[in-house]
Amino acid sequence: MSTTAPLSAPTPDPDLTHALAPCLPGGRLAGPLLAFASIPSTQTVCRGLAAAGAPEGTVVLADHQSRGRGRRGRSWVAPPGRALLVSCLLRPPIEPGRWPELSLMAGCAVAEAVEETTRLETRLKWPNDVLVGGRKVAGVLAEGALGAEPYLILGVGVNVSQRPEEWPAELARRAVSLAALGAPVSREVLLASLLGRLAVRYDDLLARGFDPVRAAWRGRAVLGQRVEHPDGNGVAVDLDPSGALVLRREDGRTATIVVADALDPVTRNGA
């Protein structure tokens, strides 16, 4: 495939693309890599490329997003040049019912990359918020489509160098950047670690199933917090073998939130 975006898409920045392409680890994440100075959302551009037939392993990055998205329609806010904003296109050779495992896998990969490049200790809050000291440093957004050529896009945002005064008031106490934690790291170094960890985790999940991901996730899990859910509230106590979050309700009984809730609604190509 050509490393240019479809005619209706923004034009990649050639210098930024050239600088970041060496971060690709190969294998299932062999690229192409397309980097943009400013786009509405890496997820949106990656979706367009996926619908146009881009191969598994296509990676889209942005120095800035004007309409970055988080889970359930939330916004992802970051000044230009302050965050690592990346989306990876996967075409998983497993049944779509297992795709939510990949969202949890990506959370583990992000946590591992942050630890590898900064030596900070990370925790994971269900389904895939990466925390340091109780504050969010990264998150994952998984979106997929079924059809003749199904695909899943894993969007990752990492707070790299935002200054405390740059956060909106509603995020100031809940989010933090790696630099503000005293662990500055270049986006190139972090990207190379992230893609490398993601490639290893993806291969391992396809070869050995979900158990290694579950073990890695539980090892960093933030449990004991109250979770509100349309099917009932409770306190998070574990991740079961299917990837569902186990809740203990007020009456002492346990219930689960199916891990599919960690994956934004799957649509059908062309719908």
User: Class in CATH?
Assistant: Alpha Beta
The tally of helices reads 5
Q: Assess the beta-strand content as a share of residues.
A: 15-25%
Overall 3D geometry? globular
Uncertain segments of ≥5 residues (pLDDT<50)? none
Describe this structure in words.
The chain has 271 residues and is of the alpha+beta class. It has a single domain, classed as BirA Bifunctional Protein, domain 2, CATH 3.30.930. It is built from five helices and twelve strands. It has helices spanning 14-20, 42-51, 100-118, 187-208, 211-219; strands at residues 33-36, 59-62, 83-90, 123-125, 129-132, 135-146, 151-159, 226-227, 234-239, 245-248, 254-257, 267-268. The strands form two sheets. Strands 1, 2, 3, 4, 5, 6, 7 and 12 form an eight-stranded mixed sheet that branches. The chain has a four-stranded antiparallel sheet with strand order 8-9-10-11. A hairpin with a 4-residue loop joins strand 6 (135-146) and strand 7 (151-159). Helix 3 (100-118) crosses helix 4 (187-208) and helix 3 (100-118) packs across helix 5 (211-219). The two termini are 25 Å apart.
What's this entry about, in short?
The chain has 271 residues and is an alpha+beta fold. It is built from 5 helices and 12 strands. Strands 1, 2, 3, 4, 5, 6, 7 and 12 form an 8-stranded mixed beta sheet that branches. A 4-stranded antiparallel beta sheet has the order 8-9-10-11.
